[in-house]
Design goal:
- It contains 25 helices and 10 strands.
- The chain is of the alpha/beta class and about 525 residues long.
- Strands 2-1-3-4-5 form a 5-stranded parallel sheet, with helices on both faces. It has a 5-stranded mixed sheet with strand order 7-8-6-9-10, with helices on both faces.
- Helix 3 packs across helix 8 and helix 8 packs across helix 9.
- The longest helix has about 45 residues.
Length: about 525
């Protein structure tokens, strides 16, 4: 029984199509609906439909973007697009991406039925063929990926051209240039980046480049890793080649920016004339991309770009990150993230040499590594990796946004380790109890529980607590809860019942009585005092 997924941002269309298909009394089964491309991808992964009927204009991810990703990740899934008369140009783009057909809104029931009957036969035949070829194609794609990646790393042995022939790779023209594309991380909000799954951006970029490169130039496009798409472009040894590549990258950047509202940057290596030198072109492309740090993204970067830049060496002192050092040791996570971001941003704005930027960041990280060594928290901090790997990773990052995020994560993790270490070495049982109350005041807490926590007799803990704090444990716990309740009354509009529950009181009557005893006002009077003051 063929399965169908309906994707449209308007509920009425989704439900209407579903009812039409139910009335059709065919083998088609509508397995689910989705309101946009992002939700559709989640359901495609889980449900594996045979056919997707999708609208074109939708929030978050439209039908065109959805088709790019489906074509790359799920080539066995067929698509039909729906569009209004004003969107016909998008429908044509969908057909180029392999859509089986399009339905012009509003469409007739008979039109939908005819299309589905035709597709049912086609999908059955394709499934039969797919089963036959699937294993062979998977092996071939894996070999192709391996060989192309081997050309970049220089691991393909000299003279083994038959290996390229076996996977269908041919460079017929005299020159090969390596073009590396990366997402400009600062062009995508954190919410969209992590909600969508970061790897999908590379899939989309790869598909977009492949579609563009087949027309004016010859080449092979593949995803090298989650953040990097590589194109090996085969071209004549002419002065016009760079201009052609530049024109191509400008078209791709403009197209992706217009259709998907994010930007990418390209790094271009110099042309080479033999397979063994492709790794050199790849390294040059990566080096050129590092200059995103100082001149920004959404552009083509090459060795010519670097040569034209005037480098200046500025003085930098450790005092510039002393405040960051203070926050890390205090465990002030919010300010650690803020200061780390400001440090990286300032470096990238003021310095013109990526190597020096990386060098200063690595110096800063080595300072904190030394601090972690002295406090014996390195293992807890780096979680199975070592500082050498961390520094190598820093030198490979060419986006200021990604560099900032990595530093924030590293120093934030170290700050947490510092706090945990301090907790571990607290010697006073009263300090442990006070800390526990401050963190768990909303829960049920008794003196007996605290005595078990610090391995003391309840009577002895009660006496010790009063001598150290100047008040009984119960009075301290009650005051702490009332402090939190007062803050919620002043700075939120939560109901009194909710505040009572949130601050650890067993019932609202008890809360009201205790609150009035300590403040001479009821919770409501206290809140009204805020409004009149």
């Amino acid at each position: 029984m063929p399965k169908l997924l309906i994707v449209d941002d308007e509920t009425i269309f989704r439900k209407g199509i579903g009812l039409m298909i139910a009335d059709m009394q065919s083998e088609w089964s509508v397995i689910d609906e989705a309101k946009d491309g992002v939700e559709a991808l989640e359901k495609i992964e889980a449900l594996q439909p045979d056919l997707i009927i999708t609208d074109i204009k939708m929030p978050r991810m439209d039908g065109i973007q959805l088709q790019y990703i489906v074509k790359e990740r799920y080539p066995h899934i067929s698509c039909v697009v729906m569009s209004g008369y004003d969107d016909f140009q998008y429908a044509r783009e969908s057909l180029k991406l392999g859509a089986k057909d399009y339905l012009m809104k509003p469409f007739e029931r008979a039109e939908l039925y005819t299309l589905l009957e035709k597709l049912q036969v086609e999908i059955a035949l394709e499934k039969e063929q797919l089963t036959t070829n699937k294993k062979d194609k998977q092996v071939q794609n894996q070999m192709l990926q391996h060989v192309l990646a081997g050309l970049l790393t220089g691991s393909i042995p000299h003279g083994e051209t038959e290996l390229l022939d076996n996977v269908g790779v041919q460079f017929l023209l005299p020159c090969i240039s390596c073009l590396v594309a990366k997402l400009d991380r600062d062009s995508v909000t954190d919410e969209r980046y992590y909600q969508l799954n970061p790897s999908l951006f590379s899939v989309y970029i790869q598909q977009f480049i492949q579609e563009s490169i087949e027309k004016p130039l010859l080449g092979y496009v593949f995803i090298l890793n989650e953040n990097e798409v590589v194109a090996l472009i085969n071209h004549d040894d002419t002065s016009a080649s760079f201009a052609d590549i530049e024109k191509l990258t400008n078209q791709i950047r403009k197209g992706i920016r217009g259709q998907s509202n994010f930007t990418i940057s390209f790094g271009l290596g110099s042309p080479v004339k033999d397979l063994e030198s492709i790794s050199k072109s790849y390294k040059e492309a990566g080096l050129a991309l590092l200059y995103r740090l100082v001149i920004g993204g959404d552009r083509l970067l090459s060795s010519d770009t670097i040569a034209e830049m005037t480098m200046e060496k500025l003085e930098w002192h450790t005092a510039d990150w002393n405040l960051l050092n203070q926050y890390v040791q205090e465990g002030d996570l919010a300010n650690v993230h803020l200061q780390a971001d400001q440090f990286v941003t300032k470096l990238c704005q003021q310095w013109r040499d990526p190597e020096l930027i990386h060098e200063q960041i690595c110096k800063m990280l080595l300072h904190f590594y030394e601090l972690a060594v002295n406090l014996t928290v390195v293992k807890m901090w780096l979680q199975g990796t070592d500082m050498k790997q961390v520094l190598m990773e820093i030198y490979s990052i060419s986006s200021s946004k990604e560099l900032s995020e990595r530093c924030q994560k590293l120093l934030g993790d170290l700050s947490v380790c510092m706090v945990n270490r301090k907790k571990k070495f607290v010697t006073s049982p009263v300090e442990l109890v006070v800390r526990y109350v401050e963190e768990h005041y909303a829960e049920s807490i008794t003196l007996n529980m605290m005595a078990e926590l610090v391995y003391l007799n309840p009577s002895y803990l009660s006496s010790l607590f009063k001598s150290k704090q100047g008040q009984s444990f119960i009075d301290f716990l009650t005051e702490k809860r009332i402090e939190k309740a007062k803050a919620m009354l002043l700075h939120s509009d939560e109901k009194i019942q909710v505040i009572s529950d949130s601050t650890g009181f067993t019932n609202i009557r008890h809360f009201n009585r205790v609150f009035k005893t300590l403040t001479n006002r009821t919770p409501t009077e206290y809140r009204e005092g805020r409004q009149t003051s």
